[in-house]
Design brief:
With 297 residues, the chain is an alpha+beta fold. It is 19% helix and 39% strand. The chain has 4 helices and 19 strands. Strands 9, 10, 11, 14, 16 and 19 form a 6-stranded mixed sheet that branches. Strands 12, 13, 15, 17 and 18 form a 5-stranded antiparallel sheet that branches. The protein has a 4-stranded mixed sheet with strand order 1-7-6-3, with no helix packed on it. A hairpin with a 4-residue loop joins strand 6 and strand 7.
Length: 297
């Protein structure tokens, strides 16, 4: 009887061992499916390497003190990287997250004379499509994928349709128009257009969104609520003479009371040709729905 129980115990232990081994192998296999292949690059002490990313850099993490890195001045999408010590032998790494939600991983080795010092990540992405699948979620976007939000912004811009016909402002030869309001997964997409009918360029200082009381909208505003756009597809700096350009801005979903109005203002730098649009709650609730699957709107 004791021999019988010993045999059963041995079999049970063997099965448990095999199951644990299988579970471990299966877990490793699943992790392998999510593996992000790193880019490989070389750095040196006497020269600086530059990486150009498709969008602005949001986060950088260096794997060791052998590397130093920083964004280039006045260029949010350019990262400078170099070695902080000569001839380090161990391979190190660094990671980058960009504003469109992309995660990049780099394995780095030292070379006193690297063959390449400048890298265009947009070109590399197109060549190695498997590195395009990762997408980081940002707090301000909630569950919205940054890449999907970027695709919607781009689609609205390229389709360039106008379905809001009654909201616009025109003075001093400048015409500011709201072409459409779209809604997707709790976010608004405001499509605007600015036309300059004069020969004098319109230098843009900033665009402002705020909610105010209707009775104060045409007077000095004492109480207002500012709404800050989460994303802008194509930031505008200037509209040349006899030129028209458009923009798409992403905002959190909101509604306003009937006695309030949304003011969209665009200010001219060192000038007085400011433009103002007024959007009511009835306009907001008529926002055009964007389909997840085919981006139909």
């Amino acid at each position: 009887m004791k021999k019988y129980f010993k045999t059963l115990l041995t079999i049970a232990l063997l099965i448990g061992s095999v199951a644990a081994s299988f579970a471990q192998d299966n877990s490793e296999a699943h992790l392998a499916l999510g593996k992000i292949e790193p880019y490989r690059m070389e750095v040196t002490y006497d020269k600086t390497s530059h990486l150009i990313f498709p969008t602005a850099i949001r986060y950088v993490d260096l794997g060791s003190d052998y590397l130093i890195a920083g964004k280039a001045e006045d260029a949010e999408n350019v990262l400078r990287v170099k070695a902080s010590a000569k001839d380090f032998e161990l391979e190190t790494n660094f990671s980058v997250i960009t504003n469109d939600g992309r995660f990049y991983s780099f394995d780095v080795q030292y070379n006193s004379c690297p063959q390449t010092l400048s890298y265009n990540l947009l070109t590399m992405q197109k060549a190695v499509d498997k590195n395009n699948g990762n997408d980081v979620l940002f707090e301000e976007l909630g569950n919205n994928s940054p890449s999907l939000a970027g695709l919607i912004l781009e689609s609205i811009y390229k389709k360039d349709k106008r379905f809001v016909k009654h909201i616009g402002a025109k003075s001093f030869g400048i015409q500011f128009t709201l072409k459409g309001i779209y809604i997707h997964n709790g976010k608004y997409y405001f499509h605007t257009e600015l036309a300059n009918r004069t020969n004098v360029p319109f230098q843009i200082d900033f665009i402002n969104f705020k909610v105010v009381d209707k009775k104060l909208a045409r007077r000095t505003v004492l109480q207002e609520r500012t709404i800050i756009p989460l994303r802008t597809y194509k930031p505008l700096d200037a509209i040349g003479g006899k030129t028209t350009d458009q923009n798409v801005l992403l905002l959190d979903q909101f509604t306003i009371a009937d006695d309030k109005v949304l003011i969209i203002e665009i200010f001219e730098k060192n000038g007085g040709r400011h433009q103002k649009l007024e959007v009511e709650n009835s306009d907001l609730i008529k926002a055009l729905l964007i389909s997840d699957m085919h981006l139909k709107f």
